[in-house]
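To: structure subgroup
Subject: Chain for Friday's discussion

All,

I'm putting the inputs and outputs inline so they're searchable in the archive.
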Amino acid sequence: MEVNMECKADEVKRLRGCINDLLSVLALSATWSGDKLSEIAGTLLDVLLRMLRLDFAYVRLTDGIDGSPIELVRLADKRNPAVQPGEVGQALNRWLTAELFTLPSVITNPGGRDELSIARFGLGLEDEVGVVVAGSRRADFPTEIATLHLRVAANQTVIGLQEARRRRDQYRATGELERRVAERTADLRRVNEQLRAENAERKRAEDALQRSEAYLAEAQRISHTGSFGWHVSSGELFWSDETYRIAGVDRATRPTVERVLQRIHPEDVVFVQETLDRASRDGTDLDFEHRFLMPDGSVTYVHVVAHAMRDEQGDLAYVGAVTDVTAATRSQQALERAFQDMQALKDQHRLVIDTIPGLVWSTLPDGHADFLNQRWLDYTGLSLEEARGWGWRAGFHPEDRAILDGWSASLAAGEPFEAEARMRRADGQYFWFLIRSVPLRDELGNIVRWYGTSTHIDNRKRAEEQLLLTKYSIDHSADYAFWAAPDARLVFVNDAGCNALGYTRDELLKLTVHDINPDFPSAAWEDHWKGFRASQSLCLESKLRRKNGQILPVELSVNYLLYNGQEYGFCFARDITQRQQRDEELQRLTTRVLQLQDEERRRIAKDLHDVTAQDLGAVAVNLALLRRLVTDLKPEAQNIVTESASLAEAVLQQIRTLSYLLHPPLLDQVGLASALHWYVAGFTKRSGIHVDTEISRDIGRPSLDIETALFRIVQESLTNVHRHSGSGSATIRLVRAGERLALYVKDQGSGMIDAATGAIADHVQSLGLGILGMRQRLRQFGGQLEIQTSHHGTAIIATVPLTSAPPGSRARGSVRENDDGEYPTGGRSRDHATRVAWSP
């Protein structure tokens, strides 16, 4: 069972090999092209020699160019190339005729001394084309399979030869064959019994012919080539099956020239008709292309080739072939469209390259420039001829031509190139450019071209220089510079800031604002940042914490910045330790000067009241006595005495007023409230300005120094109202809020704003020392002074704590806190108290 299976497997394998060889032989005609018969015969011999493992193969073709036969031979033994085809032909001459040839036959090897078995096959029915002889050392040669292969090959060769002769004899051969077959058939019918052998031979010839026609039809189908014949005088057309298929005509339809013209594309009808008329008139061959318009609307492109010939009667006829070239034509059209698109794209790319705002160029692998865009040429003023090769170097600054060394190194290493250099503009000026180039490689990695760009960076270069200068200035500034992000991270700090805080830059950039400034804790940072954003810029005094924990007082100048959509806080900090020390010293001196001033005023007021006023009072009394005692004075003298007494009374009154203004005795005796009422009454009498005074009844008696300071503030404020505000009225409120006293002095004048400029009025500058004095008086007690001004008036607001009296100050009376903690209003009756809202 296993042996049978193996035998069947071997048989299947042999059959497959046989079929593959047959297909190879059948495909031969599809591979043959041209009109050289020797090439077709040589191909046949090569295929047979290899396929059938022959020792030699020989072919003789009867139709040579000059009438002599064409002989070719192939030997398996390449060591004997000297054997000529003619020699082999003479050796085989006696076997080349069908009558003398019998199978098998044995001859001496033309290329050696051993004997070979040969097989002969005619090309054509009567060997009219030629013969093929194959020889092999194998004893069983030729086998049935070899015989089949040889017959098929012979038939294919006939097909190929006939195709090579461009089918010039096909029509005539077909007619001749039919005539001979008809004659042979009649002869065989008459002598059927006598010529059984010839009848059998005819049967074999018919089978061979059918096979040949089948091979031809298959070859035409594979190659999409149909054959046709056209008898011009009768109009008869003969088509092969493939021609019917190409033309899209049913096989049952008889072809005519009119029907062919109907199937031709309307745009090609005139051309085809004129071509046929001209060829039939001149008797010339046909070779043209046209289109068929198929019933389904599709278009088929065909190539028509036909040979003109005349029959025995001299009538013109054509034998030719029609090939479906639709695929090739459409491929060609697609290729042409692609080429046009590619050319348009190339033109577009060239336009883009010439239009883009940059200098674009390319070089060969050795660095020679072969392309520079129009902008490059316009910028440098060089022509393309001048810049080609290495001429582009003339466009660079002499000091920057050292970059050529880097360019040469990149060319040698095949690495991308990048450098900055100055290029000369057409007007002779030089500007900075960024030059970049990258290589283009093929599939093997070889550089085929370099592409590069030159980008104008002069503005960036100058900006970089300015940026470096700015950075250098900031880094070497005596002030400390910090950049902070919205999340309080430090993103920049200069050298001065690092040195002042004792950190390295890397250490500081890992910290936040909360870590170095105790005035900006993380809990309140969001509110602080909103304040920065709202104010955009502010200046304040704060403090920084050094790495060792030491606190450094600073003045901060903070600016809110928005850069590229990112928020930043930029801050300059300046050490104000020495300034604070000077301010503290100045504050102590100022406080001492104010204290000495008050003491001196008190002393002068006391001297004026106790000495000068008493003396003037005595003078006035004496003058009065003199006027009563001396009765005999002349009227003139009496008037002088009376006038002197009046002057003494007036001076006495002025001295008393001056004494009270310098230091009202009521301030020491009954306190601030009474002193203010007395002073306001005198001020209204002297200036004509009505002043409403509201003093809370629960202010008690603060220390004498606080009362003196608040009294002086009222004096200075009402004096400024009288001199500068133009107001006809003013209001004074003295209230208590918890442990603080609050003093309000408000007028309804023009304020401190210039109506024309919107700035602080000039007369305010003259108030500088007065305001400074008021502020300093409050500062010694921890108090504050606030000034609110607008076009509707000015308000002076002074607050001072009751529990922060300096050492040595004497407290008087009692102080109690209001129940509701608000600023109470004073006056004659609490029921009539009003709360005043001060607006700036």
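Points worth raising on Friday:
DSSP finds 25 helices and 25 strands in the chain.
The radius of gyration is 64 Å.

D.
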